[in-house]
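Message: Just now I want nothing more than another pair of eyes on a protein record. I am handing you a single protein, as its sequence and its fold in token form. As I understand it, each token names a local backbone shape. Take your time, and here it is.
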Amino acid sequence: MNRFLTAVSAAAVMLSAAAASAQDFRALAQTDLQAARDELRANHPAAVIPGAAGDTFRSWIDGGLADAQSRVGQVNSGDAHAYLMRYYAAGFRDSNISITPTYEGLGPYFGISWPGIATGWRNGRYEVTYVHPGVRNAPRIGDVVVSCNLTPIEEYARAKLDRWEGNLDTEAGRVTSAPYLLWNRNNPFVSGLPSTCEFQRGRSRPRAVDLRPVPVTPGVLETAYRATVYMPPATPLNIETVDGRPWVHVHSFADSAGWDAFNSLVESQAATLRGPQGFVLDLRAAAGSSAYTSTARGYGLANRIWTPEFTVSRQPAAGEITYRATRGNRDWYAETLGRMQGDPRFVQEAGPVIQQTQEIVAALDAALASGQQTFTLPGRAAVADTGAANPVQGPVVVLVDAGCSGGCLDTLDLLTRLPNVRIAGSTTATDSIFIEPTVERLPSNYSDLSYGHKAWTSRQRGNNQPFTPAQGLTYTGNPADETAVRAWVGTLFQ
């Protein structure tokens, strides 16, 4: 199988999608679901590695397939196809398993109707966060949603949002999907715009409000979403001065974020960052991945600020990594090794990674030859303290939120082991111990399946465990109010 994205243009896919009939999409959904299940069954480590971390995988891979297949008759468009693929992938409760469109999808600001109201997940409740001007008889910002269509709001939210828009078993999934609670996002599998919801203000009795569609004009849903959930700026990597101290912005781990220029900027300002005034490292919404590992981005940043001599003994030990021995996984590593060796810069900067990948390919060959299902290799061992002094003199506040995921979490594994570093903000996303993505194009050509193909069974941070700021370091205000956020962060340095 081809383990890498094929060169199909998004425009061609969209034109094909527009020409397909509802029946075509039903057939494509059926085929893609089965292919995703077969790929995961054949190559995902959770299928054969025992333990609680894989229990959901093993119970959902066939049970979830039957669940999703029972809904195929409702697939009537490309959007519906994408939703059903997302539903099946999300049912594994593993953020490292996903099925995403290969074309430009709905995006976070899409909706075909809405009542002029957005909601956010605040303090364990769904609260009104935005009301469009002119909406009559509307609830006020801060009102709590109690029920919709005579259904208690938790039950309503589970049916409408869970697995479709986010993982409601996690705080991060609640936060990022909350604005869609009352919207119609063209998902045929759930209810659209509710007709009536009850809202409560303070301790008063809940008040029923009839909801009516409000025109979806250009930009209005983006405004409502941005009033509710923090969204990163157009320039995701930057350094500015706020209240006399550096504020380091890292809102993406993607290759396309501009890392070369940013790393040069960090190096040029390293002396200032290490000063007694301290600095803020802003990792809100820091998602995305790089060609080989987004973790290297975060570790590279830490090394430029704290120096490798200081961080090396504080980097978490990798412990043991368990691999599933399959032909598919072997091919993935062999092809990845070829790409590494064909990248002159990677050869120059990451020789040990290439050597390690060569050893993994050899171990996979040996396991396949002997008929082993799995094998374990030691990861990077802990390094003794070098005795290097901490070059950073001042306090460091690392600001996180629900958008901190993937390599951001690995970066926090290191940062939390450095002196005078405090994690602040709100609870991060989670990730499983099944790491390092394989990406597989599904038969329809409209979706890519991504999943972790090795198990970090000895990871110190638990499976699906987020980072949660300690008491006094949790921000409870409006995350979209940047002025308020910065004022609050400033108090942490007093």
About this structure: Confidence is low (pLDDT under 50) at residues 1-19.
